[in-house]
Amino acid sequence: MAASPTLRRRRLARQLLRLREEARMTAKAAATRAKELSPDRPWFESKITRIETQKILKVRDADVQTLLDVYGVDDPEQREAYRTLARDATKTGWWIGYRDVLGAGTLVDLETEASRIRTVQGFYIPGLLQTESYARAVVRSGGYSEEEVARRVEARMMRQHILSRSDAPRLWAIIDEAAFWKIPPDLLEEQIRHLIDVQRPSLRIQVMPNSVGPHPAMDGSFVIIDFATDPSALYLEHPMSTLFPEDPRVLEHFEMTYDHVHASAMSVGDSLAWMQSLLQTRE
């Protein structure tokens, strides 16, 4: 499985916060002690909190070692584990070559180490399940130049490679019926056949029918990314940006929303039959 630098950064921040809390130190006290141990490095209360909230993307090895001294971590193996974690948090994946269209690439990064991905989509087929033709139509609708359309579609197709790995994450997608009616007519058959053919025990699709009426996920699409040993991550789609709320209460809210939508949508079997019926109406 590919390693996720973003996940490593989240883990490092969480563990350094835990060490400080176990040492019963405030961020200000930790910074004061760090300055005493490492007077040649800048240490402030804000620096401690920025590390713990992932505002500092690359934590220097010297700073990690100083913090371990501050928190009394003396075991050589433990210290090396923290240093390795900090080094891994600075590495990059294939998506770095697509920063012009992916930005920070946080979603793609986190997906690489996911054990399960749960997504609720209102108006589009999820990116991981789009055919190349449909992806091109969706991206083109954003008003991008043809060069940028090509780059974005290429990146999206690269992103889908995680589903063909031997350790592929489980994927459960809930798609509102509205998304199907927005597929261009000339692309409908290819896209739906793909959704039917791609399903397997570890990849399931449910359709949220119009007959359900209003439901909790109508405010926007979202993705919950689960990991084997780390807390889940939440991705929210927004017209002007992408959001990754860290507040556990926000994640809990969307977990409940997902459960409600999951229970309200058609079953996997009924969803499959519904998609097949769409194909039959075109024959």
Automatic annotation (TrEMBL):
It holds the Pfam family HTH_31. InterPro entries: DUF5753. Residues 106-276 form the DUF5753 domain. This is Helix-turn-helix domain-containing protein.
